[in-house]
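Exercise: predict the structure of this protein bound to flavin mononucleotide.
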Amino acid sequence: MTTLIAFTGSTRSASFHTRLINSLPAYAPEGTSIALFDLSEVPFYNQDLEGEALPDAVIAMRAAVAEADGIVIAAPEYNGSYSALTKNTIDWLSRPMGQGVLREKKVMVISATPGPGAGARVTEQIVGLLGFFGNTVVGTVNVATIHEKMSADADVVTDSALADQLRTALAAF
Ligand SMILES: Cc1cc2nc3c(=O)[nH]c(=O)nc-3n(C[C@H](O)[C@H](O)[C@H](O)COP(=O)(O)O)c2cc1C
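Solution:
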């Protein structure tokens, strides 16, 4: 059994990143479970909250990552970089310094955009950051014109090349 925890960097109700995470079980090898972690109760990072004041949602998030075999980060590109939500998630998981749970993990990174850029800039930045913490990126999936590659009314990828990319990345965990 391979247990994956997934994070979306968008709270938008129709977020392509959240929808892509929801689609992943169809492309994962048998015996893989993928759980989307609910970030709604995770506050902005504040070092005052470390220690006894650590929010329950952060405790749960860190425990989920510690126990997982791998992590999926679906990261929208905002102004050529991370969304605040993606960066906040990584910042919480990077602390305490040197002991953060997001290290020596296998990680898959997805970025999708309706535009032509395919999220290449944010993916490059995340891959660099993950390497800094000693993680192994098992796959990156960059998607341009995502609105043409998913079903309009279901969280299903309709583009066979994208489906193959997701299968390849998930098989690498
Ligand atoms: C503040 C902001 C900045 C954006 N900057 C970029 C960008 O630099 N490159 C890009 O390809 N798309 C950019 N976009 C478009 C997003 O890729 C698009 O809104 C995408 O659907 C967001 O992901 P979501 O569907 O999961 O919410 C930006 C969107 C917003 C809201």
